[in-house]
Amino acid sequence: MNYEGQICRPPMERASYMLPVAVGCSYNACTFCTLFKHLQYRQLPKEQIEQEMIRVRDAGGNPKTIFLGDGNAFGLDTQHLLWILERIHHYFPGCEAVNMDATVTNISQKSDEELKTLYDAGVRNLYLGIESGLDDVLAFMKKDHDLQQAYTQIARIQKVGMIFNAHMMTGIAGKGRGLENAQATAEFFNRTKPHKVINFSVFHHKRAPLFRDIEAGRYEAADEQENLHEERRFMELIEVPGMVYDAFHDTLELRFRGTFPQDREKMLAQVDKAIAHWDQQPSELHFFR
Ligand code: SF4
Q: How far apart are CA 183 and CA 171, in angstroms?
């Protein structure tokens, strides 16, 4: 199958079979995001989705976990999702979990009964772009949720048995606000208890709408040194037993991975080593083209 867009899925899903069911993101408004801005969102036709399943089944595939792409597959109409889930179990009897990205709004648009039906049909892990624990930052970045909405909708999916996982971005609050954001984001996760958290420490792209805010002086970006200090504070404060954490700092080629609380000290030592090195270097702030 030809894949349109940039492949972007949580690292914990690398062993899953990625089944595209849509192109792009139906929301597509977050100002830092460039993943799908060049694409017109559309659902893929049923025939195309089923042909892809047949191709993989005929090649001997019977995956245990399947990740539905792209940007927010959980936003698909419930009946359409149920059709996809039914076909998945038809072609792949070994499938134990169907996972995907979701927005808070996607969840709010489904009734409790729909959520339960989707769980019963195999939906397990949802990955939500939480990004920050600060409401003003979420509003500035044009996320489609505020914190109260996120608390409400996460509780709804957890009630039916689905697993809440999150994306976050150190640095998203901008220059001088890293420690404040670390505290607020840790507090949010300590209450909502995600199973997995992926930290794509913010990187700035000249094609992102956020870059216009930077040029106009409405937003000042934090440098990577500040992001490391923010991450260290976040690691200190997180109190979610069993939370799997995977963090990227692409411009510094750093990655921190582990499970809380048992890997906390190991990860803190890694961050401290990085801070000791990078704090001696000139401010590290990249803008990708
Ligand atoms: S919801 Fe996710 S994929 Fe869609 S615009 Fe926002 S960050 Fe990008």
A: 13
pLDDT of residue 38 exceeding 70, the answer is: yes
Residue 6 is predicted with a pLDDT of 63
| CA 47 to centroid of ligand 1, rounded, Å | 26
Which residues have C-beta atoms less than 6 Å from ligand 1? 25, 27-30, 33, 35-36, 71-72, 103, 129
What is the whole-number distance in angstroms between the Cα of residue 252 and the centre of ligand 1? 24
Q: Which is nearest to 259 in space by CA: 212, 210, 197, 216?
A: 197
Query: What pTM does this model have?
Result: 0.96
Contacts with 85 (C-beta within 8 Å, 6 or more apart), sequence order = 98, 118, 121, 122, 123
Cα maximum dimension of the chain? 57
DSSP-based three-state secondary structure for 249: strand
